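Input sequence (305 aa), recorded before submission:
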Amino acid sequence: MNAADAHSAPPAAKPSGTVLYAMIAFMVVAWALNFIVGKIALREIPALVLPGLRIALAAILFIPIFLWDRRRTRHHFAWRDLPTLILVSVCGITLNQFFFIAGLYRTSVAHMAVFISITPVLVLLIAAAIGQERITAPKLCGMLVASAGVLSIELSNQGDAGIATPLGDLYAFLGTLSFSIYTVAGKGISSRYGSIPMNTLAYAIGAVTLLPVAWSDRASFHISTLSAAAWWSLIYMVVFGSVFAYLIYYYALVHIPASRVAAFTYAEPVLAAILGFALLGEPVTWILALGGAMVLGGVWIAERA
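Predicted structure, token format:
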């Protein structure tokens, strides 16, 4: 951390639209599959252990990437940015990953995905609260439609067979809220420091804060007994769900408005629900489909207005 002003990362050449959107599409698919492999990993890895293990391993992978990047550009974090850097790290990694795993453990893939799809609405609300955006009547209408969709899902107990719980849905919402704060707060600062330094710092802080939580439940975790399926699920969550996906997300934030990047979560709930049904046998009821459609429609209205 440098006491002087930060030495910003040199502006990266803007990629072509085709390349950038292909990267974002890869990110969306990686995160949709992350729900499935997360469910598989949770069959053998305790919910308190998995976030810390995932983030610590991802942090280790980020170190050589950061060292390689530093050979090309010198990065010095400014003390004045420390509060924002900590906020981004805690919200984007620590809280988001803790609530993601806790929610995934207690609710269905489809419910998790629907709650994550309200990210653009929460990004808009947070941005409006700090003066970055203005809430217009059409945007408010879209928010109300999306909220009605979420409410309809929560009021329905049909068809989930105990898979989805209100507590799990609450955790899903809190994870989405923390990720939305991360998106808004990280927009400006990521353009100053670059995707790789920001992610390396965020994952390092995430590992430091989540490992004590994992350590507290170490008695119920025996790494020697993990099956190949659990190991491959963990590897996927680290390499694709963490390292690649977060690098792409921050890279996209440099070149595209935060609300537009968040809007790509439209595809996540649909893809995740289909994968949950096909691979895990989780039910997709008509009320869930209707509520999910209302959420997606409301988010689309709010983002387009």
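Checked by second reader. Residues 2-8 have pLDDT under 50 and may be disordered.
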